[in-house]
Amino acid sequence: AQDNNKFKIGLIIPMTGQQASTGRQIEAAARLYMAQNGDTVAGKKIELIVKDDVATPDVTKRLAQELVVNEKINVMAGFGVTPAALAAAPIATQSKTPLVVMAAATSSITEASPYVVRTSFTLPQASVAMADWAPKNGIKKVVTLVSDYGPGIDAERYFKDRLLFNGGQVVESLRVPLRSPDFAPFLQKVRDIKPDALFVFVPSGAGAAVMKQFLERGMDKAGIKLIGTGDLTDDDQLNDMGDGALGVVTSHHYSAFHPSPMNKKFVEAFEKANKGMRPNFMAVGGYDGMRVIYEALRATKGQGGGEALLAAMKGQIFESPRGPMFIDAQTRDVVHNMYLRKVERKNGQLYNVEFDVIKDMKDPGKSK
Ligand code: DHB
Fold it and tell me: What is the 3-state secondary structure (H, E, C) of 231-265?
């Protein structure tokens, strides 16, 4: 029910099932943001309503509807996978409710509703960054292996086109099912082709299985390099992947090892509040999404409806634990640095250590 002294955020995330780590990271980050910044903004008490959609779009849609109709939420946020974000987008449009995408990363999501604002990243950003780095570093002939849905198809396409432009070539494109994938037959095929490198996109939580099977098959010893977007060497799993992960190069917007004072504070506070759990890029998407919501509420002095909040989200510029970022006022998509990183052991733990950067990268998917 409506309560004029409250400001309700409906956080729809996967808390169970294959994508549960995404929800766990985002919820922890949202709660950390609230603990650090208080739960009252512009005279309104912020209420976070967390709902588990199991990353199933039918459930997402039902939850979004219920939250809008029954709870009268002011903003909806979260969205662990692309199909979930796309399922909620029409409800955001109909109800004029801003929808803050904290995780999902297919380029086209921001075009599904004028009420979508994104604080995660896009696969074209990460994939183009890798396709610029690889051919300058002896990697010309590549096989791609992606999860067979929105972000994987973006990764495959943008990596392939850019690599070709840069004088390299994708010789085979493999797609694995999103649900319970078995990577073995695909990796065997890659072994037979023997490219310079295998480029991988799998969603957060699936990287460790790819790494394990890649190493078990001795692909590294056969001279095949493993590269990918940073979803592969996810900070949520990386430290448990073992020394076989050392040297793997990925491109992404966030590493828990990012050497800024703000990030060091963020990681320390996050680990302290969560029994040592290391924040990953999902946590940062959630933390920054809360920032965007808080500042929109502040800017509208607690008086604005959906339209006004949306307007106050567009164009926000701020420092994130990932580095500088802003919300492009035209596209409502995130603009931020893309880092090249290599897995190294630091202070006894495995981290993605940044060694190069492409600054202020817009989503390449928006210019086509
Ligand atoms: C998506 C999900 C992920 O876990 C990820 O790492 C990247 C993209 C998605 O469904 O959009």
Answer: CCCCCCCHHHCCHHHCCCEEEECCCCCCCCHHHHH
Pick from 263, 315, 309, 260: which is nearest to 284 by CA? 263
105 lines ligand 1 (CB under 6 A): yes
How far separated are the first and last CA of the chain, in Å rounded? 43
pLDDT tens digits for range 116-149 = 999 999 999 999 999 999 999 999 999 999 999 9
CATH class, domain 6-121+259-332, is: alpha beta
Give me the CATH code for the 124-252+338-366 domain, please: 3.40.50.2300
The number of angstroms, rounded, from the C-alpha of 289 to the middle of its chain's C-alpha atoms is 12
Tell me the pLDDT of the chain averaged across its residues.
Answer: 97
Domain-wise residue ranges, the chain:
6-121+259-332, 124-252+338-366
Instruction: Say yes or no: CB of residue 81 within 6 Å of ligand 1.
Output: yes
User: Under a CB-based contact definition with an 8 Å cutoff, are residues 277 and 271 in contact?
Assistant: yes
Mean pLDDT of 212-240: 97
